[in-house]
Amino acid sequence: MREISLGLLASLFFAVTFVLNRSMELSGGSWLWSSSLRFLFMLPFLLLIVTIRNGTGPVFREIKEKPLPWLSWSIVAFVLFYAPLTFASGYSPGWLVAGTWQLTIIAGVLLAPFFFVKRQTMYDEQLIRQQIPVKSLLTSLIILVGVVLIQLPNAQSTDVRSFWLGVLPVVVAAFAYPLGNRKMMEICGGRLDPFQRVLGMTLMTIPIWLIFACYALVTVGVPSSGQVIQSLIVAISSGVIATTLFFMATDRVKDYQGKLAAVEATQSTELLFAIMGEMILLSLPLPGPIALVGIVAIVIGMSIHSMITAKEERKKTPVAA
């Protein structure tokens, strides 16, 4: 259950992303600046943390050994995750983006067969393909129903183009984040801690974010002071604190697909935090009845995930004589 607690805490800090990204869009800020500034601001904080812990050497050694896998999967995990999210914020409220983002829970479960785990046999060590955890998949479908319900009112009140521009990018992000995260765990093989892994992935994507920033500078000009400050808050809260907490949780359960799905399901609480944040900071009204039913379904699905994980842990814990 400790991993789920870490996931819940990470969700609280992740929710800042959805609220402030929407705030920046409403104030006229470009999504290009919102996405690039977050990672450019993250870099010095991560460098400081890892340097203090004397951990920069292993990061550069790991990158030097496998530069292409590091580059490609870092782009998937960070660029294909965050750029679509900030883009979608221009077309949907933060809570709606956060709700659609819960599809990442389904994605995490469905991606299981793409990964292998080492198992010691009587004669040697073998790589065994992971299986889709059926219980986790069925529970995740409850969350999927919730996502559909919260989208229904939005689909009825907006034009088709705006609706899909606010949904499709989030679907891409929902699959990219768990795929990139899991592939990077596989590449690192437990040799780097979460701070080191986030630093390495950030370093590998900095050239992409610089291209984003240069394009933004040419097309929309310099960001406002408000966008800079809010991007800094997002970088610290979501980029450094939340990402590290979430990576810590997933690292602990990376070889157990059911537990990993449960940790990824804790992200559903981002929706609740995002709703409360937007109601307080942006004075948005409470979602309508259908959307509220969807929110309840998402929370129920996440709770069932947690109960299944707790039950599995109790079965594996030896009973004292």
From TrEMBL:
Q: Which UniProt keywords apply?
A: Membrane, Transmembrane, Transmembrane helix
Tagged with keyword Membrane: yes
**In this entry, which stretches build a coiled coil?**
none
Q: Where are the transmembrane segments?
A: 31-50, 70-89, 95-117, 137-156, 162-180, 201-222, 228-249, 290-308
Annotated signal peptide: none
Question: Which InterPro entries does the entry mention?
Answer: EmrE
Q: Is Transferase tagged as a keyword? A: no
| Name the record gives this protein | Multidrug resistance efflux transporter family protein
Which lineage do the record's taxonomy fields give for this organism?
Answer: Bacteria, Bacillati, Bacillota, Bacilli, Lactobacillales
